[in-house]
Amino acid sequence: MSTIQDKVVIITGASSGIGEATAKDLTSKGAKLVLAARREDRLKALHEEILKSGGQAIYKVTDVTSHEQMEELAEYALKEYGKIDVLVNNAGVMPQAFLFNKKVDEWDKMIDVNIKGVLYAIAAVLPSMRERKSGHIINLSSVAGHNVYPGGTVYCGTKHAVRAISEGLRQEEAMSGTNIRVTNVSPGAVSSELLTTTTDPEMKAGLDEFYKTAIDAESIARTIAFAIEQPSDVAINEMIIRPTVQMG
Ligand SMILES: NC(=O)c1ccc[n+]([C@@H]2O[C@H](COP(=O)([O-])OP(=O)(O)OC[C@H]3O[C@@H](n4cnc5c(N)ncnc54)[C@H](OP(=O)(O)O)[C@@H]3O)[C@@H](O)[C@H]2O)c1
Fold it and tell me: Is the pLDDT at 1 greater than 80, yes or no?
């Protein structure tokens, strides 16, 4: 039996891409899923598919930029399933453009979703995990959390922040002996809906070209499952997963 069996896993951004692929992979391994995103129709369809295949899941429409909604999501998970074993902190946006284009609204959005959203989710699950002295927080950073490139400045800044938050959280929990594992996942180009969040035509053209060799979202889902299914005294702290042909 997989060690994922009966683990309660919250997935933010479960309505598409990596989040959706992770939900499908983890339900096949017996996890109890708590699906969150803003698009209810997509969550509902995924929820129905999981139940039809004999899996267990609940869903809640949640905007990760709302601290209150994130707290309500964790409360819902605890009420329905009694515990939270894993958070897949995955929701993210990538509206890329050169700084001189002054897309300040998009900067705000990236900071709100990619940084504050990640922090709010950690805040929502940490108390109950600490109380149980057990838990696993998996944050989606990116190779953009390791590199910086023109046009990706703000996005890279948010993904560097996610990596710093992962490492800080890891050290704090290790120091406190809470048995909470932290995994930072840094994908390269992955086929998903992420590119649709870039509106700048020049950036979009370059990204469309770059993403021609993108790997599928299931590749990342498999690595997330690998991190979860390690014995509880083993923490996979950092994973970079690129298409084999990706340079940077
Ligand atoms: N695809 C790649 O090449 C790649 C590479 C490196 C890292 N990543 C990271 O992987 C993560 C998942 O991205 P993806 O590629 O799977 O893209 P995606 O298909 O666009 O999925 C993004 C998810 O985030 C959710 N989301 C966005 N804003 C939200 C908000 N305010 N509140 C709640 N949910 C929100 C979306 O759901 P709703 O719109 O329904 O809310 C969607 O489910 C992101 O953090 C991304 O930065 C992706």
Answer: no
